[in-house]
């Protein structure tokens, strides 16, 4: 089983993907991998998300995970579809236990000290910080990182191409997540690869 830190350090940015058409899965994944982003988070926000996970998993170099995983059932169907890591907007014992049972790395969302302490109790040390900008931005994550020296984060929510580097400058941040790489609509693969290259070149 891979460790979540191995997934988080594949590249400085994890694209958060909302894909409405399974036909877009492979071109989008190929464009992102070509730009240097290998860990891809497919959110379970669309009907076809599990199919998209299966399709993207066929792309060489792609390490495809599921996002918006809200419970154990979501987690199990994502793993069955081929997800190699799991991202959740929050942290519940239900999802953490399901991840252990399925032996899949988990990146659960935390927004405050109590969330992080619940995660530490469950044996977790790597967390999403969500919603990063709305939950207080960089000052909030700096303050939260102080008492939790062992914790490492992937801030997500409101981060864009021009703010990612500031977050990546924090010692507790291994990578950031964001949906800016693949805007809604028919994918422009050249533009996606260009954005991915820019993101991949950021210092983690
Ligand atoms: O769907 C999930 O599992 C989430 O937790 C939310 C997403 O990670 C953010 O919505 C991405 O944020 P933006 O980059 O601001 O679009």
TrEMBL record:
Origin organism lineage: Bacteria, Pseudomonadati, Pseudomonadota, Alphaproteobacteria, Acetobacterales
InterPro entries: Aldlse_KDPG_KHG (IPR000887), Aldolase_TIM (IPR013785), KDPG/KHG_AS_1 (IPR031337), KDPG/KHG_AS_2 (IPR031338)
Gene designation: eda
SUPFAM superfamilies: Aldolase
Keywords: Carbohydrate metabolism, Lyase, Schiff base
Family to which this protein belongs: Belongs to the KHG/KDPG aldolase family.
Name by which UniProt lists this protein: 2-dehydro-3-deoxy-phosphogluconate aldolase
Alphabetized CDD domains for the sequence: KDPG_aldolase
Subunit structure: Homotrimer.
